[in-house]
Amino acid sequence: MPIILLLIALVALKYFEVWKFAEMSWWWIIGVAGVAFLWFEFVEPMLGLDKRKAHNIDEQRRKERIKKNFEDMQKRK
Fold this sequence. Notes:
By secondary structure, the protein is mainly alpha-helical. The protein contains 3 helices and no strands. The mean pLDDT is 91.
């Protein structure tokens, strides 16, 4: 995600010609976009980071469901 934020910031600074970014080549921005593409398409899945995020979300849902069921059982007694 920081790569995407950096890419958006570089595009905005270059487009609005802010400070030294006005003289910067568009190739730097294309390079950052290429790095972001490589990261999200190859490196992240290879390291399993995409699956880990989904697993954490499922685990949180499971814990909330267990907690809710436990509270419902307590109310019945």
